[in-house]
Amino acid sequence: MTLVTAPTPGRPATVPTVAGSAAGPAQPLSRRRRGLPNAVLGLLGIVTFLTGWEAVPRVGLVSTQFLPPASAVLRTLADEMGRPAFWTAVGDTVVAWALGLAIAFAAAVVLGFVVGAVPALRAFTASTAEFLRPIPSVALIPLAALMFATDIRSTLMLVVYAAFWQVYIQVLYGVADIDPVAEDTARSYGLSRWSRVRHVAWPSALPYVLTGLRLGAAVALILAVTAELIIGSPGLGQSIAVAQSSGATADVYALVIATGALGVIVNIVVRVVERRLLRWHSSVRGEVTV
Amino acid sequence: MSAPLSRLALRVAQILALPVFLIVLWWYLSRANTSLFVPTPGTIAGVFGEVWTPERLRTDALPSVLRLLAGFSLAGVLGIALGVLIGSSPRLRAFSEPVLEFFRAIPPPVLVPVLILFAGIDSTMKVAVIISGCIWPILLNTVEGVRAVDPVLADTCRSYGIRGGTRLRTLVLRSASPQIMAGLRQALSIAIILMVISEMFAASSGLGFTIVQFQRGFAIPEMWTGIVLLGLLGFGLAMVFGVVERRVLSWYLGLRRAARGSN
To answer: Does the model's ipTM exceed the 0.85 cut?
Structure first.
């Protein structure tokens, strides 16, 4: 899996990224909205969507065998949530995701800082990174299946490979973006190498590191579920494959909604972490751009 | 006169040194240890030509790539069109955002079993899977980009009476293009994943199917050639995309360089 070079995908507006500042100033906050508040409109959107989903199979546009009405799927989801097997699957997916992301993140941050700080290393590794990064991690599926079969390690292999590049590339950008004046100032004040990393390099690169974490977290979940779906290592993906092959359509939909909910939770958690750690940064950034 | 030459030599060394070292290391390790799963690079290179004959490339690889391109471009057209529509109206955006965010959060591969229900396992299903997976980053990035159009430019357009297609081309799509391209880049890698997955999960032909067949038959070197081919495909598509992106965003990259220079 390969996302990204310079203009950072995801939600460029929320965090100062490479692309964020240049796409024009953010919308003025002063624009007043009349009518319904956004939260109500959003709720209305969800209700409309669910009503549409309920109506389409009931009216007979699509057979209920292919698309059970929303109420039936939600009931199945509630049933699933009462079963321990469901929570075991959720736990397996979350463990593989978290472990894989943690390994990839640690490796990428350490390597990224070392390589980013030494120009010669950076020059000599660039071609290899540029070649390996776009290799789709799903290409490793057969290898993982052979080496680890349905063990969690086959999931980890895919997750780590995919998430690593996301974080690594962002860390490199971050280290390249360190303000030379700040670096020189720290140097002339006699800060040691370690405290320069701690007080200058790390905070400067942090927004990029966290963007990498956000992208990596999403990609890691995709690959965790993919490995479960295709290789059959335990988790939500495997449950979906089993439900599909046994013709339990409502269960397939219920589990897809469950993975979507997991994705939403992952996004929210990462965004909260990002906002907490960058509280200081966003404010500084705001002053400068004005 | 020798300075540029030695700089060139250094550049070539920088590009080639590590890859050559890694391949030699791989060769050495795979020769020393007779692991069943990791053949030497020589074996893989030798088998590559036998496995991926022009005939096979035409029947297995080409249809996969065409499906990938079809799904990706349809998702691009749909995503940008819907994104412009939703992004231009704050109320429509507020209305649709929670649902869209949820769809974006669903890991795209789980859509494969769902879409098999509707479309069976033919090409339509695979293209549908690719579209349904990679439309979300394009759509949501377009919405963000359109939303962030510079209000001064928007007002300028209004006072010059620029509207309709001209406004769309010269203002909206232009200023959203950095974010649209970022969305497209993300979508491209999702498209490759989905192309492979949809063929691995259920198919009777295609790149993903062939590779899984090799793996199930324990044809290890053949399987590795498939991995290499997928890697080359990913690399090639990323290169092409990079060229297109640099062309489309040349105004933007130039603007950024100028902004940095004047600081």
So the answer is: no
